[in-house]
Amino acid sequence: MESFTEATKIFKELKNEYKVARIFNNIGCVYAEKNELDKAINFFNKGIKLSDEVYYIRGKSYTLLHLGEAQLRQKQYSDALLSLEEALEIFTRIEDHLGMVYSKINLENHLFLCYK
């Protein structure tokens, strides 16, 4: 985490908000892997907010996907559905086929978890 903190500081000094948004997503992914989902969701939300501010559409879409995955794991099904649907909409609009596949897989997982 120290490397991410240092990288965030450097990119903020360089005013490279795209990279900062990506780092927030990466930090969220690390926390999700450690099953610290509240922290993960916090960083995903920071990444989404910053991506919106600098119009970083692709970054927002992947961060929404990761947010939806974390929300599914926390049984926040309504929030997960919104996140995953928004990610899929963006992936479709920017023609990111891999992102579309990941979104659809997670939406299927959502349906499975909600209706099992």
Would you give an account of this structure?
- The protein is mainly alpha-helical.
- The protein has one domain: Serine Threonine Protein Phosphatase 5, Tetratricopeptide repeat.
- 85% of the residues lie in helices and 0% in strands.
- It is built from six helices and no strands.
- The chain has helices at residues 2-13, 17-33, 37-53, 57-73, 77-93, 97-115.
- The radius of gyration is 14 Å and the shape is globular.
Brief summary of the model shown:
This protein is mainly alpha-helical.
Features of the shown structure:
116 residues, mainly alpha, Serine Threonine Protein Phosphatase 5, Tetratricopeptide repeat, globular
Average predicted local confidence, pLDDT: 90
Number of domains: 1
What class, by secondary structure content?
A: mainly alpha
Oligomer: single chain
Give the helices and strands, then pairings.
Blueprint: H1 2-13, H2 17-33, H3 37-53, H4 57-73, H5 77-93, H6 97-115
Helix pairs in contact: 1-2, 2-3, 2-4, 3-4, 4-5, 4-6, 5-6
